[in-house]
Design brief:
Elements: E1 41-42, E2 46-50, H1 65-76, H2 92-104, E3 110-116, E4 131-142, E5 147-155, H3 164-177, E6 189-195, H4 199-207, E7 211-221, E8 245-254, H5 255-271
Parallel strand pairs: 5-6
Antiparallel strand pairs: 1-2, 2-3, 3-4, 4-5, 6-8, 7-8
Helix pairs in contact: 1-2, 3-5
Domain N-acetyltransferase: 68-211
Protein name: N-acetyltransferase domain-containing protein
GO molecular function, one term: protein-N-terminal-alanine acetyltransferase activity
């Protein structure tokens, strides 16, 4: 009889995070833990600020500003999480833990808070008077493969069908694909992944110049209550059979496409009025 050695043991679950994680961390001591240089991104209509627990204004520290704004947005508009694998936070403590677990601990991810002029503004608004409009992240980054992903896009409903999504995404594309001499990272590829059922996300990606590359079937097992293209697998001994399975719609944009037409198109979209 063959004898095999297999000493594998499951990785123990991580220790529970403090409910006030980084709530009281001094701004200058907050570690973004990101593999690439962190920088402020701004256009003439949008400013992307790092999604931390405080906003550095040069004035009095304002604890929990971003976390509280984020919580207010997802609590008021929980439908924003329809296609995001996680569930929206319901308390400040849950928001702090979510930001830490999904956006700070993974060194391949950096989340930005989106700020812009208040809805319906007719006069010029200075950037210091901008209001919170949602969040967006650079995710799935790889220094070795020189690639990144635009992800966790959550624009609050009052800012839908405005300049916000276009400018926020455009700023990230410039950050990811522009040459270092132009202020970017000079990466080779930017990708956009979403649930295959998420039609608005697909349309947004194509509008910004991403090319559809295909569908990865049964890519992710979702949490109970999340909708996927497939129901869970049934059968004796099968785990998580109650969970839907997500097919990933995959699109990409590479540096030569960016330099030969897409960048010009994105800049044109960002220059439009309204």
């Amino acid at each position: 009889m063959a004898v095999y050695t297999n000493t594998y043991a499951p990785t123990p679950p991580p220790a529970e995070l403090p409910r006030d994680i980084h709530l009281h961390t001094k701004p200058e001591e907050y570690d973004f833990n990101f593999i690439f240089p962190v920088k402020l991104l701004k256009s003439d209509k949008v400013v992307l600020k790092y999604k931390d627990k405080k906003l550095i204004t040069g004035e009095t520290q304002k604890p929990s500003l971003h976390a509280e704004l984020y919580l207010e947005g997802v609590s008021k508009y929980p439908e924003l999480f329809k296609w995001i694998p996680a569930f929206p936070a319901k308390t400040l403590e849950e928001a702090l833990v979510f930001i830490e677990k999904h956006w700070r601990q993974p060194s391949n991810t950096l989340s930005y808070a989106i700020f812009t002029e208040p809805p319906g503004s007719t006069n010029k608004v200075e950037s210091e008077d901008y209001v919170y409009a949602g969040s967006i992240a650079v995710a799935g980054c790889s220094e070795e493969q020189m690639m990144a992903e635009v992800g966790y896009v959550t624009v609050l409903p009052p800012f839908h069908r405005t300049h916000v999504h276009t400018h926020a995404t455009g700023l990230l594309l410039h950050y990811i694909l522009d040459l270092p001499s132009q202020g970017g990272l000079g990466l080779r590829r930017c990708q956009w992944l979403c649930n295959s059922l998420n039609e608005p996300s697909k349309s947004a990606a194509l509008r910004m110049g991403f090319k559809h590359e295909g569908v990865q079937k049964a890519k992710r097992v979702l949490s109970v209550g999340k909708e996927g293209a497939r129901r869970g697998r049934k059968g004796e001994g099968v785990k998580r059979e109650e969970c839907d399975v997500r097919d990933d719609w995959v699109s990409g944009l590479v540096w030569d496409e960016w330099e030969h037409g897409v960048k010009e198109n994105v800049d044109g979209l960002m220059a439009r009025k309204g």
